[in-house]
Amino acid sequence: MTTVTPTVSTTAPPDTADYAARARTRLRWTHWLIGAVLFLVAVQLVRFLVFNKAFEWDVVGQYLFEPAVLRGLGTTLLLAVAAMVVGLLLGTTIAACRLSAFAPLRWAGTAYVTVFRSIPPLVQLIFWFNLGYLLPRISLGVPFGPEFVSWSSNDLITPVTAAVLGLGLNEAAYLAEIVRAGLIGVDAGQRDAARSLGYTGWQTFSRVVLPQAMRTIIPPTGSQFITVLKGTSLVSVIAMADLLYSVQTIYGQTYQVVPLLVVACAWYLLVVSVFSLGQQRLEKHFARGEKR
Q1: Which is a Gene Ontology cellular component entry for this protein (predicted)?
Q2: How far is residue 31 from each of residues 27, 37, 121, 258, measured CA to CA in Å?
């Protein structure tokens, strides 16, 4: 009895090869077309920026390093850093509460995140600035008992305090979710392996879990810093002399609205670009040994 062994051809049909070649050709022409369109858009944009006299670039250069503008820029940076520090510390604590096995802590963390993510930051800023209306005095003491010390809310809640509270507490709600997502994204087997090597709970967290979680935490945290940096422009409603408020004060006197707004945009763009470079270096540091 003869056994017939089927033969398998390893050569692709000619029509398949021709189709693949034609597909690559069409893709290449598509790239050329997209590149040409982008080039034309870039040329039009540069032409609009350079030859449109309404921008008044001489005025932009005049006020770019104006002392009042630089002071406003410094205030913006300080507010952004302070709000992120408050947000990171409180957000990490809230993330730990949401991951806790103790139900009341989970409920408290969930309630905080829900409330502060639901209320717009501008409303929170105005609320904290007017806290004295609801709470004339802020005191420390025994609950339902004697007070040890108290302060006037109007003296304690200054525009700076209101800005840091409004921005920082709002950021904490978002950063809590970012930190929580990074921690639960680490495979449980990593923790088991660390325990099998004799690591303590803290060593497992600090040497195994956290370095891997940072790969997930850093990119959205950087985006949140950029968001809070731009969000500092909201503090102008409570008379904080940030970057936007400073240029508003100047163009309120000179009526040169567009050039002063360009000054503000230029500084925002520069700061965000520098921070983005630092964020990229930090991401590369925590991504060592990982294949992309």
Answers
A1: ATP-binding cassette (ABC) transporter complex
A2: 6, 10, 42, 37
